[in-house]
Amino acid sequence: MPKPDRRILPTLIGVTVLATLGTNVAALALRDDGSAPGSGLTATPPRDAQKQADFVATSGTRVPTTAAVAPLGKRLTPHYLVAAEAALPPETVEKVRKTKTVRGAEVVDAVQVQVAGKRIGLLGVEPSTFRNFTPEPTAKSDALWRNIAAGDAAISFTMGSDGGVRLGSQIPVGGKTASGRVRVGAYATMGLGDVDAVVSRATARSLGVPAGNAVLVSAPKAKPQAFLKTLKKMLPKGAKAVEVNPAIDYPRSQTGAPQSSANGQVMTAGQVQTVIKAAYTRIGWPYVWGGESEAEGGYDCSGLMQYAFAQAGIRLPRVAADQARTGWIVPLDKAQPGDMLLWANDPTAPGYISHIALYIGDGKMIAAPRRGTRVQVQAVYTNNFKGAVRVNPRRAAVTPG
What we know:
This protein is α+β, with helices and mostly antiparallel strands and 401 residues long. It has 2 domains: 16-243, no CATH class; 259-398, endopeptidase domain like (from Nostoc punctiforme) (endopeptidase fold (from Nostoc punctiforme), Alpha-Beta Complex), CATH 3.90.1720. 20% of the residues lie in helices and 25% in strands. It has helices spanning 90-98, 127-130, 136-140, 142-149, 157-161, 201-206, 224-234, 269-281, 301-310, 320-323, 393-398; strands at 16-17, 27-30, 56-59, 80-83, 104-115, 118-125, 153-155, 170-174, 179-187, 195-200, 214-218, 240-243, 292-293, 298-299, 327-330, 340-343, 355-361, 364-367, 376-379, 385-391. Helix 8 packs across helix 9 (301-310). The longest helix has 13 residues, at 269-281.
């Protein structure tokens, strides 16, 4: 069975983004009304971020021009992404919009770029309409979308808090025909795997990003396999369509399947031992956002999982939200050594899996917690906990990501 390709955002040759982590730019976290919460100055999101849904910055040296953005309309969940190397024909977009079960479709500019040496997905969007396709806390922030409309970038919460990209800092962007600097105006996860940065379409065009080469589609009642086949028949050669954030497998029984009756669909005892031993060898390595090998100087939470399971011959997708789909979910009291533990810690995208660790038994786990820490053994905690993944090696091998 061919490996699905979820990383379909086209790579624009010649465009690179290198995050500037300078400390000479003061960042002020603002509420939507423009008032400063607390003492004001901050470089990273507050750790009690569950109480504060919006992370909008204005620089101490420049305030964005006020930009008109339409009020939040009816929110839609994106279920599918269509992307191509070049602009999608208008007639193709119209066919997608008129397809049965489609409730909405949003044209965006999509590209893979390099940020601090890590490949991420970047979208150019129309703030007034794209906001309707984002998680509720992100969608509600008028100030966030005004900043984007004025030329700022919004980056994912984890890229900001764990990647060390500061609010108010400048991200230099250079392409074959254009270059510039984009200010980080907000931390806001869009709930789309592999998409860590969003700018306005006007900003994207000024940076040479392909125009109108992707469409997000909301079709909540469509059956994924049949709908994808329908989409693919409409698309020009080279265009691809994939499901966005497929459902995580929460069995109704919530008990999990014992190895004796799983018909080879779980790891062997030998594989479990290999995974745990491999994770132990990484203890003491620094947390590095996007890190997945010694060459990068450390590991992030999902990079650690990818490394450990690879030593047992098990392929995992790259990000935690995709790794959560490599098996079925069991409650913590049913977790076994070798299961992966899941958390949804991102206040800008509630329910989105943003952290993962390896369970080793007796209430302990091996984890790469966050920026400023090292890979370590720690006690399992239950705040924002979403379950344990009983990894199915066969499913893992074909899980997109």
